[in-house]
Amino acid sequence: MLTLIQRDDCHLCDLALAELAKARAPEFESVFLDDQPALEARYGARVPVLRDERGERELDWPFDAATVQAWLAEGGQVVPSAGRQPPDIR
């Protein structure tokens, strides 16, 4: 499972979301560290951070769509390449 650790009103987080969309990243959960002291202590200066809970890997900002795709592939995630449509499964 993927998690994007972010904060409210964060322009870098908005940019990260756009890159994840371009990369066609699989479904992920957004976790906001606002009002969460433990998360703030760990990630406060690093947000946004994409975390792969399966492999306990983290990708810190800045990243682009190609970097996200390569990072996901390293972790065994299958992601359709940008510009190609995913297969139509019925």
- Count every beta strand, where a strand is a DSSP E run of 2 or more residues: 4
| Helix and strand pattern | EHEHEEH
- Tertiary shape: globular
Number of DSSP helical runs? 3
- From the 3D structure, determine the CATH topology: Glutaredoxin
Structural class per helix/strand content? Answer: alpha+beta
Could you list the spans in which at least 5 consecutive residues all have pLDDT below 50? 86-90
Q: What CATH architecture label applies?
A: 3-Layer(aba) Sandwich
Please give a quick description of this structure.
By secondary structure, the chain is of the alpha+beta class. It is built from three helices and four strands.
What topology does this entry show?
Blueprint: E1 2-6, H1 11-22, E2 28-32, H2 37-43, E3 49-52, E4 57-60, H3 65-74
Parallel strand pairs: 1-2
Antiparallel strand pairs: 1-3, 3-4
Protein name: NrdH-redoxin
Organism: Stenotrophomonas maltophilia (Pseudomonas maltophilia)
InterPro entries: Glutaredoxin-like (IPR008554), Thioredoxin-like_sf (IPR036249)
Q: Can you describe what's shown?
A:
It is built from three helices and four strands, in the order E-H-E-H-E-E-H. By secondary structure, it is an alpha+beta fold. The chain has a single domain, classed as Glutaredoxin. The chain has a four-stranded mixed sheet, with no helix packed on it. The longest helix is centred in the first third of the chain and has 12 residues, at 11-22. The two termini are 24 Å apart. Residues 86-90 have low confidence and may be disordered. This is NrdH-redoxin.
